[in-house]
Amino acid sequence: MRAAVVEQYGTPVAREFDEPTAGEGQVVIAVAAAGVNPVDVARAAGTFYSGRDPLPFVAGGEGVGTLPDGRRVYFDRPVTPFGAIAERALVRSDATIELPDGLDDGLAVALGISGLAAWLPLAWRADLRPGETVLVLGATGVLGLIAVQAAKLLGAGRVVAAGRDAAALERAVAHGADATVRLDGTSGSALTDAFRDAAGGAFDVVIDPLWGAPAAAALGALGRGGRLIQIGQSAGTTAELSSAAIRGTLAEIRGHTNFLAPAGVKEAAYRTLAEHAVAGRLTVEVERVALRDVADAWARQQAGLHGRKLVLVP
Ligand SMILES: NC(=O)c1ccc[n+]([C@@H]2O[C@H](COP(=O)([O-])OP(=O)(O)OC[C@H]3O[C@@H](n4cnc5c(N)ncnc54)[C@H](OP(=O)(O)O)[C@@H]3O)[C@@H](O)[C@H]2O)c1
């Protein structure tokens, strides 16, 4: 079968790979579309924090496709060395979620790793309460643009979108953000002040896929009992945090990874996201790319797509 194969750590190549065979508790899925995520780039590069996959392996951690009985499903965590960016993927039978009618393949992929990492930090990790004020960092990325919409759908009051790209920040406003803060290299107390101005006070929740200087400044803009949910490190692997910013407001920094969310929590969240998407309340800009162009897709994902989700079609 055709697949995006990581032969050497770096960029996958489109070539033939062995067909998967289902063992006990596994199923082979005919893939219709597979996502490209920062985690896939890191795994292919051999730099993901959980360790290196033995070579060679097929890239891709999520997709949509059909089961042998014809049902359309979303799937994640394919069984290595098989991955999602291939004509067929091997997955555990309990790692599939049946898709509702009317949900486009590309959008169904976008609701997976990106959608869950936007929704779960708000609904599950932050326990967002109606009317709370939310700051979304990295709001120009796929996760961030979904988080802006998710915050509103979950009943947030004021939602502030922060990011580098001006055009993508405009899209965040179109998706419901009440105000924006441009991340133009300003840091420290000046950035904290800009966040506080946009909040009209302080934040209850910060959604943080960036870390680094933006997260450090955002901590200072949390009000009493505020929660910063740490999801990714697009702006830096380390951050210099002020003690006062944490203890002075009883602030909490809570981590989030989709990998450690219980299956039932993930599945319920995915179904809710899918309902919103089918009803038109949640949208993502999706671009389909042929599997043979996987190297180009990798380069574009690394360069940054300002909120556009790439899905590879085998
Ligand atoms: N914990 C989890 O389970 C989980 C799941 C999914 C994703 N993530 C992580 O969440 C992050 C975002 O994912 P994504 O899918 O939204 O990726 P994405 O679409 O590529 O977006 C990346 C975002 O980071 C911003 N960014 C990149 N470098 C930056 C820098 N130096 N300073 C400030 N902003 C910077 C981008 O801004 P521009 O638009 O200006 O380029 C964009 O807003 C990634 O780190 C990813 O690994 C974690």
TrEMBL record:
Residues annotated as transmembrane: none
Sequence ranges assigned to domain Enoyl reductase (ER) in this UniProt record: 10-312
Gene3D superfamilies listed in its UniProt record: Medium-chain alcohol dehydrogenases, catalytic domain, NAD(P)-binding Rossmann-like Domain
Domain of life: Bacteria
Pfam families documented for this protein: ADH_N, ADH_zinc_N
InterPro entries in the cross-refs: ADH-like_C, ADH-like_N, ER, GroES-like_sf, NAD(P)-bd_dom_sf, Zn-ADH-like_protein
Protein known as: Zinc-binding alcohol dehydrogenase family protein
Originating species: Conexibacter stalactiti
